[in-house]
Write a structure and sequence with these properties.
By secondary structure, the protein is an all-beta fold. Helices cover 0% and strands 48% of the residues. It is built from no helices and ten strands. Strands 2-10-9-4-5-6 form a six-stranded mixed sheet, with no helix packed on it. A four-stranded antiparallel sheet has the order 1-3-8-7, with no helix packed on it. Strand 5 and strand 6 form a beta hairpin. The chain is globular, with a radius of gyration of 13 Å. The termini are far apart. The model has no long low-confidence stretch (mean pLDDT 95).
Length: 118
């Protein structure tokens, strides 16, 4: 069974940076796209960034130029470098494995809380 363990969240002032990590257990990591999502209370989980198995990234418009997604297949880990954070980035961040249709396919992990103060 694939398991996801996110870490790296915390409290940071606006303009600051954080680096999130997600370790994926299981052999499907290197052959699948990966993605970071985020969710705030009362709202649906939204896609923040994804990265194909070959390394091509995609970002939601609001984080372009500020966030960078990357992956290390040898470590079964996907990262999200977040720079110039704003209070609007406050959320619980989750990672997931994607199928060929771009749909998350594993059970959600516990996520990691990111809080940006103004």
């Amino acid at each position: 069974q694939v398991q996801l363990v996110e870490s790296g969240g915390g409290l940071v002032q606006a303009g600051g940076s954080l680096r999130l990590s997600c370790v994926v257990s299981g052999s499907i990591f290197s052959s699948n796209a990966m993605a970071w999502y985020r969710q705030t209370p009362g709202k649906q989980r939204e896609l923040v960034a994804s990265i194909a198995s070959g390394g091509r990234p995609n970002y939601r418009n609001s984080v372009k130029g500020r966030f960078t997604i990357s992956r290390d297949n040898a470590k079964n880990t996907v990262y999200l470098q977040m720079n110039n954070l704003s209070p609007e980035d406050t959320a619980v961040y989750y990672c997931n494995v994607l199928n060929r249709l771009g749909t998350p396919i594993t059970s959600w992990g516990q996520g990691t809380q990111v809080t940006v103060s103004s």
